Amino acid sequence: MVFFENFRIAFGALRANLMRSILTTLGIIIGVAAVIAVVSIVQGLQYTITQQLQGVGATFMLVQAKTERNFPGMVARQVKLTYEDGQAIEQKVPGVKMLTPTIFGRATLKYKDRKHTPAAIVGVNENWQDVQNQSVDQGRFFSKIDLENRHKVVVVGTKVVEELNLGPEPLGKEIYLDVYPATIIGIMEHKGQSLGLDADDLAFVPFDSALNLFGRNAGDQVQLRLHADSADVVEPVKDSITRLLRQRHRIPPAEPDDFQIQTQDEILDTVNTILGSITAVVGGIVGIALLVGGIGIMNIMLVSVTERTREIGVRKAVGARRQDVLIQFLIEAVTLSLVGGAIGLALGYGLGVATAKLIPNFPPAHVPVWAVLLAIGFSAVVGIFFGIYPAAKASRLDPIEALRYE
Amino acid sequence: MGLIELRDIHKVYDMGAEKVRALNGVDLVVERGEYVAIMGSSGSGKSTLMNLVGCLDTPSSGSYVLNGVAVQELDDSQLAGIRNKEIGFVFQTFNLLARTDALHNVELPLIYAGLSRGERRERARRALEKVGLGSRMHHQPNELSGGQRQRVAIARALVNDPSILLADEPTGNLDSATSEEIMALFDELHQAGNTVVLVTHEPDIAEHAWRKVLLKDGKVVSDQPTARATTGAAAASVPVS
Q1: How does pLDDT run across B1-39, given as a tens digit for each residue?
Q2: Chain B partners of A315 at a C-beta cutoff of 8 Å?
Q3: Looking at residue B240, what is its pLDDT?
Q4: Residue pLDDT, tens place only, A369-387
Q5: Per-position DSSP letters for B68-89, written without gaps between them
């Protein structure tokens, strides 16, 4: 009964000094708004990336050469992962459904007098569409026949069509990749941006063409993208590939792998780790804001206790015990910081949504429940932590002195 | 047994180098239903005595039994409980909470008594009606005159049915006409059966009481009935207005 009465008293006191209360809680407002804004944006990103990766499927695996620099002074062994490794995996590892080697490089595309250097030229085989769960919107992707007969073909993204001014019917037009001519046979579906890479600003060429374009050495550092038959066999397939590649690369038993195999789960983990550290850094900054905000609350509560010395005296005279006064002022401090937290929450969410809207192709902001609870919880903790000293001071006032206070 | 029993009360303030003896062996017994004025010049120890009687302070030595409870044995929060239940304070400066209407001010002791909101409201309303402020319940202190504020304070003192009404210079901040009204209210409350202890330095205010205790240098130097008591209960029962 007395406990709930305290909230009424607290709101009354805060309303009586409205401007002062708002200014006091500004630190908390800013701190909470910052954390919610960042979390909402990061969570939006994470959500979108997770969706995209899961679109690729749980059976997806990525094999890459691992460039180790663990032993300074040692001559780094030439780390290779080649198309032939890929072929060996396809032939010898049971449970591999489809595989495409992938190399990335850059080249300038030309059509008539237009030039454009896309984000990447990607050399792949006919399995790309199925491996990446990505398909052409117009025309077709290249086939096994195109690859075997070394057809000069290219599949481009929508951004490339725009940049080269290819018009409404780009299919069949001949463009140049540096000096090599190629015919456009397909346009990829619109994907949008992810992880800073514009998925529409790409051009796909048959793997061999890419080797011609980037030089033979490019074939030493190939990515292998593949799918296992089912999610259940991902681990055994991974083990088999490891054994096969160690054998092919002649790695002695004590040496570490010179390649790494990432499953979809592991890639997700990596992404989450990166986004997690962004959140942690921001969390640190926010911690400082909350600290400053808390000191502000302590300051104003000390002022309030002094101003209301007589009130405390009267309350004690009519029967308030120490703990009644303590709880009253503690609740006032907590209410102050919780109101700040709530305002900060609304502000931060608004900020996150606005930011996500302003940046084109950015995923929508998303505030998870834990962030809301965390913000509220933190505000309350700050209120208690910084409110306890002024409240204790109020509770220890001698009623006779307090009643005499002018 | 008296309602208030003070036995050989000493109160010494330690002011560093010197010790100030505010009370120096006070014996005082007040029976239930009495109307006592405690008088004395400033420095006589009457404020200290008032604080002790009101359980805001404890004696350095001696015993104080209030309504059968040995007060000097109690700790801080037990003292708060006694103040809540047994004592109704009326101060010279009213000490109402600002920006809080009369009803809420009067409710205050009942909050700490742990009463439900509805019951608090009801009892506060009745107390305000008793002091003649039934129509001013939702006025804040700054919307009330000095006399009305003191009435609110008296209602607050009464609301939890205390054993003693303890008034410290209740008319010190009021003009003489309003002082008379407030004293008339105290007379009425006494007649209704309340025990009233009045601390004052004004002789004509003290004459409202039935018994006058004079303090000097921390000791009781005289304790006698007032003129009003000697002229008999008949005179006192005449309504004062």
Answers
A1: 789 999 999 999 888 888 888 999 999 999 999 999 999
A2: 108, 112
A3: 43
A4: 888 898 889 889 999 999 9
A5: TEEGGG--HHHHHHHHHHHEEE
A378 burial level (CB within 10 Å; 0-12, 13-18, 19+) = buried
Chain A residues in contact with chain B using a Cβ-Cβ cutoff of 8 Å: 1-2, 5, 12, 16, 310-311, 313-324, 399-400, 403
Instruction: Check A1 against B111: CB less than 8 A apart.
Output: yes
Interface test with B, best of A318, A322, A331 (most B CBs within 10 A): A318
Mean pLDDT computed over every residue of chain A: 86
* A-B contacts at Cβ under 8 angstroms: 66
CB-based contact B111 A5, cutoff 8 Å: yes
> Which position has the token pair 């006409």?
B177
Nearest Cα of chain B lies from the Cα of A313 at a distance, in angstroms, of 9
Say if the Cβ atoms of A403 and B116 lie within 8 Å: no
Q: Which residues of B touch A321 (CB under 8 A)?
A: 76-77, 80-81, 112
Structure confidence at residue B235 (pLDDT): 45
Q: What is the 3-state secondary structure (H, E, C) of chain A?
A: CHHHHHHHHHHHHHHHCHHHHHHHCHHHHHHHHHHHHHHHHHHHHHHHHHHHHHHHCCCEEEEEECCCCCCCCCCCCCCCECHHHHHHHHHHCCCEEEEEEEEEECCCEEECCEEECCCEEEEECCCHHHHHCCCEEEECCCCHHHHHCCCCEEEECHHHHHHCCCCCCCCCCEEEECCEEEEEEEEECCCCEECCEECCCEEEEEHHHHHHHHCHHHHHECEEEEEECCHHHHHHHHHHHHHHHHHHCCCCCCCCCCEEEEEHHHHHHHHHHHHHHHHHHHHHHHHHHHHHHHHHHHHHHHHHHHHCHHHHHHHHHCCCCHHHHHHHHHHHHHHHHHHHHHHHHHHHHHHHHHHHHHCCCCCCCCCCHHHHHHHHHHHHHHHHHHHHHHHHHHHCCCHHHHHHCC
Per-residue pLDDT tens over the stretch B51-89: 999 999 999 999 999 999 999 889 999 999 999 999 999
Mean pLDDT of A271-282: 83
Cβ neighbours of A12 in B, within 8 Å: 99-100
Averaged pLDDT, A254-273? 85
Q: For residue B107, what is the nearest residue in chain A, using CA coordinates? A: A318
> For B177-201, what is each residue's pLDDT tens digit?
999 999 999 999 999 999 999 999 8
Give the distance, in angstroms, between the CA of residue A114 and the centroid of all CA atoms in the same chain.
Answer: 36
